[in-house]
């Protein structure tokens, strides 16, 4: 993995986290947390898509999958935030 790939993953994660924060009302945690949520959401979304046997390629598809995963992650986090 080279530096350009790492930067691309961070930018994709930031975009996915930001979009997920907009979709899930009150789900934004700030830029750094949104990047982390977007990256973890990308892994979660990829895992969910593999369970559903949906596999496609491309940067736009990766963004969609990361946003789906980040939305799921934000919904789970909001459940714990309300109880605390």
Plain-language structure description:
- This protein is an all-alpha fold and 84 residues long.
- It has one domain (3-83).
- Helices cover 80% and strands 0% of the residues.
- The chain has three helices and no strands.
- The longest helix is centred in the C-terminal third of the chain and has 25 residues, at 59-83.
- The protein is globular, with a radius of gyration of 13 Å.
- The model has no long low-confidence stretch (mean pLDDT 82).
Key features of this structure:
84 residues, 80% helix, mainly alpha, single chain
Through-space gap between termini: 39 Å
Which overall shape is indicated by the principal axes computed on the Cα atoms?
Answer: globular
How many strands, what sense, and barrel or not for the largest sheet?
A: none
Mean pLDDT rating:
82
Strand content: under 5%
How are helices and strands ordered from N to C? HHH
> What structural class should be given to the helix and strand makeup?
mainly alpha
Calculate Rg over CA atoms: 13 Å
Q: Please work out how many helical segments DSSP would assign.
A: 3
Unreliable spans are none
Number of strand elements = 0
Q: Helix proportion of residues, in percent?
A: over 70%
- The count of domains is 1
